[in-house]
Structure formats: C-alpha cells, structure tokens
Amino acid sequence: VIMRKPNQILMVLLLPSLIWGLSSACSPGGGELPSDQTEETAEPSEAEQEPGEVQEATTVFAAAQMIDLSFLSLPTEIKAMGRSEVGYKSFELGDNVASVVGLYQPTFTEWGWKNDSGHEYTDETTANRYFSKDGFVVSMSVGNQGESTIVTFVNHGNVDLCTLPQTPDAQPLYQLPNTLVYVSPSTVSDVADFTRQELAAQGWHEYTMPDTAAANTADSQSLMFVQNGLELSALISIAPDQGGKTTVQYNITLLPLDLPVYDGALGLEFGRNPPYLGYKTTTDLDTLTDFYRTEMGSLGWTEMPETASMTPEQAALFFVGQKLYANDSEELTVMLELALVDGQTEVTLHQVDAD
C-alpha cells in the first residue's frame, strides 16, 4: 500500500497561500477534448504565465545530487515526525514560526536557492516558502500547533506545472509552485480522458495501487501517475462553488526511490512501502533485461550477478543500492522478475529480504 504524505496538514498550512495565488495561474493548453466542445477559450490575462518547455521528470538519484532533504541539519531539540526521504523531511520544534523561517530561509539562500517571494506567506501561526534552483522546487511549510511548531520540507521535482495539460476550455483558478488548479465546463469523464491521453504523450505512466479498486465516480476521479522519480496526482471533480463545473488539481512530489518503468507498460501497479511495481508489455525478455541492467545501474543500484537466473521464458535479477528511508539501517534488495505469459511479458520489481 502506498504510504501517503500528510496532505491534509499541508493543505491547511497552504490555505493562505492558495488565496494569495489566485491570480497567477497558467494559461490553458494541450490537445483536444475527446468530446465536441463549443465554448470558446478565454484569452489569458497579462498576469498569467505562458507554459514553459515540457521537461522530462527527474530521477530520485539526480534529485539527490541537487539536494538531499534527509541530510538537512536540524537543531538538537527536534522531535522526529516519521520518515525522512531524499525529497521529504518533517519534524517538530519548540520555536515559533518566525524563528523557524529565520533559521532555514537564509540557509537555502546560501545554498544558491531562490526564494519565490511572490508566493511566500507568513502570519503568527503559519508560514510557507518555495525555493527554486535549476528548475527544481522545494517547499517549506511551517505551522504552530500551540506548544510546538511542525516544519515540513518537500521536493516537488523539476517539472513546470504550467506544462501539464489543461483542456482547451480551461479557466485558471490558482497556481502555486507545487499545485495547479483550473476549472473546465466539460464533464469529469471527458476531462479525465483528456488528462490521461495528454499526460501519456508527455511520458507519464498512470498507475493503480496493488490490491486496491478505483473509487472513481461520475463526480470525481483521482488519477495517479509516475515518471522517473516523480509522482503526479490529478484530482478531477465537480466543484459546487464553481457552479458545478469540473476542477482539476495537479500536485507533484519526489518519490523515495527509483523503480524504472519501461515505455509502453500496460496495467501498471505501483506501491511505495513496500516498494513494488508490476505491469505487462509486449517487449521481449532480452530487451527488458538489458533495459533494467542499464537503468538500475545508472540510478545507483548494483546488480548481484551471482543470483541471476535466466531461461528463454523467464528471468530473475537482484539489485541492491538505494534506501527507502534515510534512517534505514541497510540498503534495499529488490528482485526483478520477467515471465512470458500468453504472448506478453509480465514484469515485477519488488523488495525482498537481503538473506
């Protein structure tokens, strides 16, 4: 099962900034809707940003070279808040909001990260900062809980949200460096079909969680995608406050480790903890074996060749290297299994015991 980050806490902390960013959404763009639409697209205002160039998603390995949040130095009096990853760190302090901001904002500036002053927010109980460097974005959310202050850092990767697909009839609602929301008069189903098609063209792989069933309805669909080391969520739903129109909310974060997916994967299942991916493809075993040996090696994994097993109809390879959480005592061992079944190759990559 995928372990979700505390999005509810983050959204509460971000709420003032959401209001602050209402006028800075991207211009709509993308392909055509799957059904006929007659409503004209509104002209973008001067305050709206033109979409940038579509960027391939970073890997976790490459993101760690830019900044590894798990190694972010902390005051000695901190209280840990669960896991610590390359792209995620949360902890509890006794300091007030202003003190925390004063501690970490100069640190990121010294490291060469630029503070996005247009989206920053601070009051007595909350603060949000967004730092950017070479296309990457890291957010800092600070919230006072009475006797303590919770601090959360998240790496949102290197993909400009303005390059994500928006329907031709899109009406911008708001944009933050890590969140983009727009409104469409089209149906939830049509917008979902459009989103799947356009994101696939950009190299994103839609996935479902293992052993779970989709809870999508006519009024709401929650879509999840991965590309390299990034996870993208697209929440598409009816919004009564927007006159019953369809809203689309994009959020993007860095994954804890790299599990490569071959292009053309069918029926992708993906899980964070324990790490797992599974899919089918028409690609042959030899091509997939070469792909994973090359990709895993470039991402910091080391193959254990003495444990490999190869036949014309199935293969098993083992790799060791990355950690799921920074405080794990040992690196993970993962097993790649390939099997020819009914003219297709079934691919699974999952964690196994090191013994």
Work out the number of β strands.
Answer: 20
Let me know the largest β-sheet.
Answer: 7 strands, antiparallel
| Distance from first to last alpha carbon | 24 Å
Unreliable sequence segments:
1-24, 35-50
Q: What class do helices, strands and sheet pairing give?
A: alpha+beta
Strand content: 35-45%
Dominant shape: globular
Helical percent range? 10-25%
> Whole-number average pLDDT?
84
Q: Tell me the radius of gyration.
A: 21 Å
Work out the helix count.
Answer: 5
* Helix-strand pattern: HHEEHEEEEEEEHEEEEEEHEEEEE
Would you mind describing this structure in some detail?
The chain is an alpha+beta fold and 355 residues long. Helices cover 18% and strands 35% of the residues. The chain has five helices and 20 strands. The strands form three sheets. Strands 1, 2, 3, 4, 5, 6 and 7 form a seven-stranded antiparallel β-sheet that branches. Strands 14, 15, 16, 17, 18, 19 and 20 form a seven-stranded antiparallel β-sheet that branches. The chain is globular and about 65 Å long. Mean pLDDT is 84; it is low at 1-24 and 35-50.
